[in-house]
């Protein structure tokens, strides 16, 4: 029997309501959301059990010499919003492509020092047009997505619109002239201080987490696991942190009607988040 809203609310009440839940919409039923969990671990990455263990053991203390501020939210950096609008991956295990390109869009804006809300790269091109991608039913590895972004590049969404089951359609006529590439990426393993320094100075990060059934019901607050089975592995874009509240701030790819306008916060140490992150070098 699947977890229901009343069970989540009861579990939260027993834990003094650390976050707020909402009933599921038709679009966000558990089976439909589970088909969006497409992060596949590459050789050499932590297992999900290792990631959860390391995240729980991470230290997030501060001193007078800590080289980054106590809070960063790239939606409000000096009064400017460097985060592009929330997208919707639909019922397709394309979360890696969405996380990678959301991270690229924000990092490029921070580097340029000016917001560009119209910046929108094509998840369809990165995901559906990759020979190494196993398409919607199987998901993808982050190193493969990053390598394709480095060697082949990605077009704008206006050149190839994303559809969950749309495949690699016809590119715009001038597609070769509108490719964006990166120089590479760096893998941050079990180093929250390095991740926070990057968020405070350079841009967003690709993050991963283990999704449990209660996460589907998330509405607001600092998420922590309460009840339900593990559903799968997910990739998202990390856009900040709050050392006072002790949580990471993230942009999801389940549309703006899920969570807090499509965003969520997750407590330090929860669900393996923060154990492995990736920064893109533009």
How would you describe this structure to a colleague?
- The protein has 7 helices and 9 strands.
- It has a single domain, classed as Alpha-Beta Complex (Cathepsin B, Chain A), CATH 3.90.70.10.
- It is α+β, with helices and mostly antiparallel strands and 282 residues long.
- The mean pLDDT is 95.
Note the main attributes of this structure.
7 helices; 282 residues; Cathepsin B, Chain A; alpha+beta
Number of helices: 7
Give the fraction of residues assigned to helices: 10-25%
* Count of extended strands: 9
The major sheet is characterized as: 9 strands, mixed
Q: Which structural class fits the helix and strand makeup?
A: alpha+beta
The separation of the N and C termini measures 46 Å
Percent strand equals: 15-25%
Shape, per Cα inertia axes: globular
CATH topology: Cathepsin B, Chain A
Task: Name the CATH superfamily assignment.
Answer: Cysteine proteinases
Number of domains: 1
Name of the level-1 CATH class: Alpha Beta
Order of helices and strands: HEHHEHHHEHEEEEEE
Unreliable stretches (pLDDT < 50, length at least 5) are none
- Mean pLDDT, as a whole number? 95
The CATH architecture classification is Alpha-Beta Complex
């Amino acid at each position: 029997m699947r977890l229901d809203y009343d069970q989540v609310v009861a579990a939260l009440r027993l834990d003094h309501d650390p976050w707020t839940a909402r009933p599921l919409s038709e679009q966000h039923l558990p089976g439909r959301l589970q088909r969006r969990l497409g992060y596949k671990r590459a050789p050499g990455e932590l297992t999900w059990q290792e990631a959860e263990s390391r995240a729980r053991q991470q230290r997030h203390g501060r001193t007078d010499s800590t080289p980054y501020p106590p809070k960063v939210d790239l939606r409000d950096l000096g009064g400017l919003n460097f985060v592009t609008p929330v997208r919707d991956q639909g019922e397709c295990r394309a979360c890696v492509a969405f996380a990678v390109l959301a991270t690229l869009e924000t990092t490029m804006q921070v580097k340029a020092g000016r917001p560009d809300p119209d910046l929108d790269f094509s998840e369809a091109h990165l995901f559906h047009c990759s020979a190494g991608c196993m398409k919607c039913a199987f998901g993808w590895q982050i190193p493969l997505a990053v390598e394709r972004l480095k060697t082949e590049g990605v077009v704008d969404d206006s050149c190839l619109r994303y559809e969950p089951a749309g495949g690699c359609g016809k590119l715009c006529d001038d597609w070769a002239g509108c490719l964006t590439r990166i120089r590479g990426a760096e893998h941050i393993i079990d180093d929250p201080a390095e991740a926070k320094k990057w968020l405070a100075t350079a841009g967003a990060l690709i993050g991963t987490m283990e999704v449990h059934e209660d996460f589907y019901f998330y509405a607001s607050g600092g998420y922590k696991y309460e009840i339900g089975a593990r559903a799968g592995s997910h990739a998202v874009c990390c856009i900040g942190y709050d050392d006072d509240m002790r949580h990471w701030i993230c942009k999801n790819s389940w549309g703006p009607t899920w969570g807090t306008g499509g965003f969520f916060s997750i407590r330090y140490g929860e669900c393996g988040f923060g154990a492995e992150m990736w920064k893109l070098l533009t």
